[in-house]
Amino acid sequence: MTGAGTNRSLDWPEGGPVVVLVEPQLGENIGSAVRAMGNFGLTRLRIVNPREGWPNPKAVTFASGADRILDEAEIFPDLRSAIADLNFIAAATARERGMQKSVIGADQFAREAAGRIAGGERVGLLIGRERTGLYTEEVSLADVILTLPVNPAFASLNLGMAVAVIAYEWFKLASGGALPFQPPDRYAVADKADLLAFFDHVEHELEAALFFRSPQKKPVTIRNIRNIFHRVGLTRQDIATLHGMVTALVEGRGLREARTAARLGREIGKEKSGQEDERGGGNEDGNGGERS
Fold first, then answer.
1. What digits encode the pLDDT tens for the residues 45-102?
2. Domain total for the chain?
3. What GO annotations for molecular function exist for this entry (predicted)?
4. Residues 206, 142 within the same domain
């Protein structure tokens, strides 16, 4: 999925948890996280003490057009000031911290956040540094720990990936899982009359092609063929296409047979012509001998 799916005429979703990036190191990673936020309907970003300062041109590049989030991002000198007005916070980490806190997944966080936001609370998601993640003291400021079912032998996610997975669960819940598009429903489903006419057509041509070699097995074979097409859920357009395919195969066979017959006819004609030439040559030799 690329920028080809972007429609800038549509309104952005509002609300959702606040994403708090704690001391991110690279503008590229901030931009990737912002892009993931834009993909999945999160618009409020807070950045705590970014290492490379702010604004960051590399963040703009990697955000790939999610400029609104960057333009409205808030910068804080420390974590405490960044979360002071929040009511509920989840700290994202891949490591066990030895704390008596509830550990939840991204889907459970989405449900918890949705319920609290509906009740008027402000919810935040803490995501730490690329190299070390959140410090244990920072995790202690959160209400719950959020983690993902990743490969324990390689549990390192960069900022963009972590935000994308969590934001995806949020937006799936908030949007009711609605997909952005469905295949167009352009053609009506074939009725039984259409289907029966096609069965007559294909079975007739199969009979002509000597497909049914065993009279005893023919009824079972016909039932199997019909059941194949019943399982597909054919439209009228599908039926029309199938009729055309069978007709083309039959006509193609006829053309091949005609070409073969014509070729054989030419070969026989050449043979006859050669034989006549041989006979004619013999008479000339004989006549010539007589004349000498």
1. 999 999 999 999 999 999 999 999 999 999 999 999 999 999 999 999 988 888 999 9
2. 2
3. methyltransferase activity
4. no
Q: Residue 281 domain-assigned?
A: no
Q: Does residue 42 lie within any of the structural domains?
A: yes
Residue 35 lies in a domain: yes
Domain co-membership, 28 together with 123: yes
Q: Could you tell me if 35 and 64 are in contact, meaning their C-beta atoms sit under 8 angstroms apart?
A: yes
The 8-class DSSP code of residue 134 comes to S
Helices marked H in the chain — which ranges?
Answer: 27-39, 57-63, 67-71, 79-83, 106-118, 136-139, 159-174, 192-208, 218-232, 236-291
pLDDT at 1: 53
Q: What is the pLDDT of residue 290?
A: 47
Alpha-carbon distance 240 to 36, whole Å? 44
pLDDT of residue 180: 82
pLDDT confidence of residue 291:
47
**Rounded to the nearest 5°, which phi and psi values hold at 30?**
-60, -45
SS3 54: coil
d(CA 159, CA 168): 14
CB 19 within 8 A of CB 125: yes
